Every structure is written in C-alpha cells, then in structure tokens.
C-alpha cells in the first residue's frame, strides 16, 4: 500500500559505524546499516521465565570492515520474506546494544532490506570494491567476555602457528 511506502521513506536514521560499538554503552539503542555476510537458521530458545522465543542470528558488516552479530526475534526470525542468502544490505533502526561475547545487537521491529538510501548505495559500492577483505568480528562465536580484541589478534596469527597449535 502507498501508506506504508511513505512511512518507510520518512524513516530517519542516525547510523553509527559498527567499529564504534565497543565504546557504546550496553542497552543503548543504535541504528546501523550493513550487509548480511551470513545468516544462521532460526531456532527456538526458552527464557528463564519459560517463554519460548524464535531467534535468528545475522552477521552484519559495514564500511568500517567490522562485523557484528545481530539477532532477529519472533516473526522476523522465522519469516521467509527475507532472502538472507542474497546477502542484502539492511538498515536496522533502534537495535539494542548487548555485551554477549563482545558486542552484539538485538534488532527491533524496524528493518529495511536494500533501502534506497545514500548510505546503502555507498555501502554497496564499497562492498564491491572490498570483496576480498576479511572483516574483523566484534562478537566472538559462542559468547563469553569482551573478546573482539582477542579475535582481531587471533586473525593475525599465521597458518603455521595454527598448525603448530602450541602457541595459544
């Protein structure tokens, strides 16, 4: 419908760079724009209160060449409307910043796929030019403390170190 299209157009964002997230306090809400590097299958979790929730985790990269895990919840997580395999560019409005495994984000209900925004076009051009770059992850896999620096250092290790396995 026309009404929803004009609502989306009027959506204003204050995008923050993913590489700035380590200095953003937990539970702050931020807007980010990035491309989906990978998407997990959705799964169900049970909260401490015994409530069942559906979640899906996306790895999202922006022009800072940093990657953060963004969790979608409920209908957003289970929906087949989003073609995550196509690695779309997504604008996320009002994500909550978490500290699970470094820095992670919890998406709100407002997400825009391949938005017609200057930042989206910029990011797409950047992605095409920098397809060979390996992004630095701000979220360690599997949780734990603020390990994004550790991840960055681990990436620098040579293949010989990894084969050797003794210098952990």
Give short descriptive properties of this protein.
about 170 residues; alpha+beta; five-stranded mixed beta barrel; 8 strands
TL;DR?
The chain has 168 residues and is α+β, with helices and mostly antiparallel strands.
Verbal overview:
With 168 residues, the protein is of the alpha+beta class. It is built from five helices and eight strands. The chain has helices spanning 2-9, 75-78, 118-129, 148-156, 159-164, and strands spanning 29-39, 43-46, 52-61, 66-73, 89-98, 104-106, 111-113, 136-137. A five-stranded mixed β-barrel has the order 1-3-4-6-5. A hairpin with a 5-residue loop joins strand 2 and strand 3. The longest helix has 12 residues, at 118-129.
Give the class from helix and strand content and strand pairing.
alpha+beta
What count of helical segments does DSSP give?
5
The count of β-strands is: 8
Q: What radius of gyration results from the CA coordinates?
A: 17 Å
Helix percent band: 10-25%
Spatial separation of the terminal alpha carbons: 56 Å
Low-confidence stretches: 142-161
Averaging pLDDT over every residue, what do you get?
83
Largest sheet data:
5 strands, mixed, barrel
Q: Biggest sheet, strands in spatial order? A: 1-3-4-6-5
Regarding quaternary structure, what we see is: single chain
Cα shape: globular
Write the layout of secondary structure elements.
Layout: H1 2-9, E1 29-39, E2 43-46, E3 52-61, E4 66-73, H2 75-78, E5 89-98, E6 104-106, E7 111-113, H3 118-129, E8 136-137, H4 148-156, H5 159-164
């Amino acid at each position: 419908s026309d009404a929803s299209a004009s609502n989306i157009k009027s959506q204003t964002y204050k995008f923050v760079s993913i590489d700035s997230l380590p200095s953003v306090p937990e539970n702050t809400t931020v807007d980010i724009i990035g491309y989906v590097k990978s998407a997990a299958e959705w799964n169900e979790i049970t909260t401490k209160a015994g409530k069942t929730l559906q979640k899906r985790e996306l790895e999202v990269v922006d022009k800072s060449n940093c990657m953060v895990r963004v969790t979608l919840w409920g209908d957003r997580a289970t929906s087949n409307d989003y073609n995550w395999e196509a690695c779309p560019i997504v604008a996320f409005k009002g994500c909550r910043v978490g500290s699970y495994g470094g820095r992670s984000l919890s998406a709100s209900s407002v997400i825009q796929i391949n938005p017609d925004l200057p930042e989206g076009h910029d990011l797409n051009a950047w992605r095409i030019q920098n397809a060979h770059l390996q992004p630095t992850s701000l979220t360690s896999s599997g949780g734990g403390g603020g390990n994004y620096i550790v991840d960055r250092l681990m990436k620098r290790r040579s293949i010989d170190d990894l084969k050797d396995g003794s210098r952990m």
